[in-house]
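hi!! sorry for the late reply, been swamped w classes. u asked for the two structures so here they r. pasted raw, havent cleaned anything up. first the sequence of the first protein and right below it the tokens
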Amino acid sequence: MINFKKVLAEKIAKVTQLDAKEMEDYIEIPPNKEMGDYSFPCFKLAKILKKSPQEIAQKLYQELEIGEEIQEVKVVGGYVNFVVNPKCLVETVLCEIDQKQDRYGDSNQGEGQNIIVEYSSPNIAKPFHIGHLRNTIIGNSLYKIYQFLGYHTIGINHLGDYGTQFAKLIEGYKRWGNEYAMDENPIEELTKIYVRISDLCKKEESVLEACRENFKKLEQGDSYCVDLWTRFREVSLQEFQKIYDLLEVKFDSWKGESFYIDKIPEVEKKLEEAGVVTESEGAKIVDLEDKNLGVCIIRKADGTTIYATRDLAAILYRAKEYHFDKCLYVVAYEQNLHFKQVFEVAKYLGLPEKCVNGLEHVRYGMTRLTTGKMSTREGTMVKVDDLLKEAITRVCQIIQEKNPDMENKEQEAQKIGIGAIIFNNLGTNIIKDQIFDWNTVLNFNGETGPYIQYVYVRTKSVLEKADYVPSLAQVDFSLLTDKQSLQVISNLYQFGDILKTVVEKNEPSILARFLINLSQSYSNFYNENKIITQDKALTNARLYLTKSVGNVLKIGCNLLGIQMPNKM
């Protein structure tokens, strides 16, 4: 496919005698389509060439060798604007789509690079709530997009299967285990125990102290504590898998915090050898006050570890096991300080430089109820299995009202309902907090996942009505140079660059926004143009464009984790 920016950059470099790659970085897309397809701001060259931006713009206008790729060059002040040859644009996009099919937009830019994406990471013995759902959806989309761009990607579910909360559960189970129907609904019952013991800990210091003693025993391998913890972990994984199956989310590794316990001594040894460990009130710490990061506790005064220690052990293990170029932690922004501390301390572990520099915290906003923040111990969580079932049920009702004779209603409702929830989590910048509201999540109007799915289904119905799909050889590219067609083609052309921008910024909402724009541009094209006409050549061109839009919508949605329905 022709890279128009690269073509322009090489032409500009030839006139200015400057680096073509640098010129490519300067090229912009104008805010107004009427200005052109690309714009080159000459202000950045004024000091280098010792001329005014206007003089440079005029020089480029006069001396640029315009090939068949560019239709028009315009000077506006210190900018040089370019209009791409429409027929050339149409041809390069449709030929590329025809050649790559369901791999359109992929690349080999990640070849030879190892990317770890740590996501989901729920706490065992607790319900899988919508906060972890957002984490899972964001991480899963990044995992898929990195993989699509040629990176060797490793998805890790770093389970929260260790820590003081399990010591509380053990204490609660000791006291009241026989009061709860663990065999019927284990996670529900464990949550009740956790809420109850947490309340008791607030009232009685001796109970809290007993919980701390349980954790100490757990770390020391006490058989009773370990057996209970193992049981809690197993029933939790069974429940989590049901949700992952619904979301079609998979992982390459399920190594949780507990896996790294026996690897902590090596971390401590390396930090001791680096001379950065000091003692404070009986605890082992790394003082980061000079970095304005406080202190990072390595081992508490009672001899137990905290999750910062376990994260450091995980980094050390992953560097040896995967030789990662990037290790992405998809975790809410509330953990900003934690990751700043851990990444700073990791510099003393003797890791390869690329591993140290590749540690990244992909922050996302919190999910809150309309009544405020969620809390397991306060019993104010929205459970994901309830959410997904409710979404599917509501979509089933809509289908029953609008299309009662539809085949496979439940399967299609599952794709639409889950798609709505996934897109709701990815449709805006992930750093923004979300207020969870049923009415917003399942609103199928406007810029939503179901809207994109509806446009996709429309492309399929158009092709079914035509009862054939033309080959590329049957397409006259010049018949797709009208305004509406070119807007669709321009959007399709951007797809590969959009995916590259997603991984540059670790921001899947960029892809979500692209899919909305593509859907809207196709809807406009559909509304303004009759697709199946008496003119066979025109019909072929518009059908092929329709097929191409459906293809890219499906690829893009699949990368977000959204499945496409066949009917709506």
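now the second protein. again sequence first, tokens right under
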Amino acid sequence: MTNPTKSQPAQRVIIFDTTLRDGEQSPSCSMNLEEKLRVAKTLEEMGIDVIEGGFPIASNGDFEAVREIAKTIKNATVCGLARAGRKDIDRAWEALRHGARVRIHTFISTSPLHMKHKLQMEPAAVHQAVVDSVTYARNLCEDVEWSPEDGSRTEHDFLCRCVESAIKAGARTINIPDTVGYAVPDEFGALIAMLRNRVPNIDKAVISVHCHNDLGLAVANSLAAIRAGARQVECTINGIGERAGNAALEEIVMALRTRHDVLSFTTGVKTDHIMRVSRLVSGITGFQVQPNKAIVGANAFAHESGIHQDGVLKNAATYEIMTPESIGLTKSSLVMGKHSGRHAFRQKLRELGYELGDNAVEDAFRRFKDLADRKKEVFDEDIVALVDDAGMGVNDHIKFVSLQVVAGSKGPQLADLELEIDGVVRDVQARGNGPVDATFNAIKKACPHTARLQLYQVHAVTAGTDAQAEVTVRLEENGKTVNGYGADADTLVASARAYVKALNKLLTKRERTAPPESVASGAVSA
């Protein structure tokens, strides 16, 4: 295939975000309904074309999430995943049916390895399942996508046969997954070109790709597929996903934008929303972005080398191939401090990409004033952390009230904690092996539980000894794992907030989570 050039018209690439489905399959990366809705709304504002909300038959929680996202989202297509069985497809349709624009995404494994060991089915039976499942889904939903799981390791003749039959049965989108991240770019691009050349009715469907990052090639493989004719890319914010993750949405979008000279394609993504969405997903999941991560890492626009600094000062293009502003890192004209009022604070929120309700603004403003009294300079990153923290847990059973800790080298460390539990304030004291241990022991005393602490992670929002701390706490109880996030200028207060939020998530899971219906214990990689 001839590579696109400047003389050719730009072609539109559909961006399919699976952060809420495949991204959530990362170990300990589950989100509750409120969090999924927040991410979905932000993705819609960003201009994402398709949002895969979840796997409805996996649990009542996933079903509710897909149903509420489908009801809420108006501009993007909302997608639900289903295996090649009527029970799965019915459950997906039940979750999606009241949405404005919806899609059923059904799949079955097609590689010899998967058919033999996972499905224990012969190729003929798998092919018939493709026809039956797509036909059944198409009778329910106008927009159907079909995926051959482990497509990159599927025999070409069988893959072509299945793709042709899926399109004939009504699939509008054919997604080719590199499920285990095995392919390399030339090979994967050639696979897409082969399908375009050999499948007679391929022009009746959009070719999509879904690449995993086990060899660090997910983005490269996705771009190779686009050049070979794919017009939809499935990806996740920050590249999250099971094992080594998925193709990173921000890297694909910015590669297409930055190298438009050799990749003559466009997307509908508003790139100046990228940092906001990245921070939101990182805060909710507790997965911190590595500093040297492309596009959204803390060092992505940092220059330490003297030669580099000199060049950037003279002309930013010497060492920056894109501007910080293009991904939402803007220099603000509003300097915030303890004398700033509500009007200026609201304007700052708008500059940072936030449109909040009155109650949320009031809570964030109160926290901002408290922070400004303690901190010399309040940076944009501080306000982002406050807003993300304030936006979670409005209807929680347990609410943080106050914390006083006695600490030091001589010990013992003592925490005096106040929590509001279902409207009743409890005041408890507890000792511990260090101030954090004492704080968590106090929470356990106020709210007895059997959850185990799996992760305690502290991250400084900005530089300096007065920097706010962002804390992530991961708890596990009876196989259910949740993350809690907290931010505060006091690390111990942030720790208590994070622990309390994790506990609230566990309570929500107890209320909403039911045993999966016929879902294998392993994660799904369609």
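hope this helps!! also noticed smth abt the second:
The first helix runs from residue 33 to 46.
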